[in-house]
Structure formats: C-alpha cells, structure tokens
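Help needed: design a sequence for this.
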C-alpha cells in the first residue's frame, strides 16, 4: 500500500479515536465503542498482522470491561448512598427518553432530577434525596474517569500496534 494511503488511514483512525475519547464526557455517548470501531477499521483497511489480532483482542476486552463497569459503577455508588433500585430504573429510563427527544445533555440533567423526585416519592426527606442524588453524580464522575483511562489505554495500544 502506498505511504500516503497508510498515513491517511493512521490519521483518520486517530481523529475518530480522539472523537470517541473526548465524547466520553457524555455518559450516554458510546466513546469506547467508537474507539473500538476505529481500531477495527484500521485493522480492516490497514491489514491485521499476527500481532495486530492480539492488540485488537485486548482493545476489544477493554471496551467490553469499560462499557459494563460504567453502568455498574454509577448504579453502585447511588445504591451505596441509599438509592432504591426502582429509582435508578426510573432515572435511567427518563434519561434515555429525554436524550432521544432533546439531547444527551437533556438526559444528563433529567436523570438526577428524576432520581431525586423518585427518592422523595419513596419517602426520603429532601436532604436524603439530595445525598442519594449526589451518590449518582459521584458514580458518574468515577465512571467517566474509568472510561477515559480505558480509552487512553486503547489508543496507546493502537499506537503500538500501528
């Protein structure tokens, strides 16, 4: 393959990966999947070498771990602060619906409000509901840090692979 094509593939892959990485700021944005798709495209268009398959396998496992642990971490922190499971389901559903009609930012705003209102409806005082909502927000922070770190590791592995 000519050098200009290989360079173009590398640059395009990096741009897509960085888009995925910085998109991770939004909890509902599938940034790790976008990074993974960029690595897959790199492998398809740039050619999977024997070592490339190994790198891609590790990148795939990291993407799966990041996506699974993301939701678990947010929910776990809210539960640690006393959230009811039904409130978490309501908050997630409201977040998805609002994200579809308005934007992911709307979903980010709606989820904690829905959790707070659901917890008040469960009989918690406003202070308790605020504390529980804070737990969700703390979980979001930790989940972002984890996703971002995994995204950086995925990109580093790709740079070694290329």
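Sure. Designed sequence:
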């Amino acid at each position: 393959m000519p050098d200009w094509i290989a360079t173009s593939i590398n640059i395009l892959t990096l741009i897509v990966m960085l888009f995925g990485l910085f998109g991770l700021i939004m909890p509902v944005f599938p940034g790790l999947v976008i990074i993974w798709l960029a690595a897959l495209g790199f492998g398809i268009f740039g050619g999977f070498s024997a070592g490339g398959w190994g790198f891609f396998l590790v990148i795939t496992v990291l993407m799966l771990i990041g996506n699974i642990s993301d939701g678990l971490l947010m929910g776990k922190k809210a539960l640690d602060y006393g959230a009811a499971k039904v409130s978490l389901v309501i908050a997630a559903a409201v977040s998805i619906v609002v994200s579809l009609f308005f934007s992911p930012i709307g979903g980010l705003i709606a989820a904690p409000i829905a959790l707070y209102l659901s917890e008040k409806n469960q009989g918690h005082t406003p202070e308790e509901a605020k504390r529980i909502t804070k737990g969700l927000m703390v979980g979001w922070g930790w989940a972002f840090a984890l996703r971002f770190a995994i995204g950086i590791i995925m990109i580093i592995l790709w740079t070694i692979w290329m």
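The mean pLDDT is 88.
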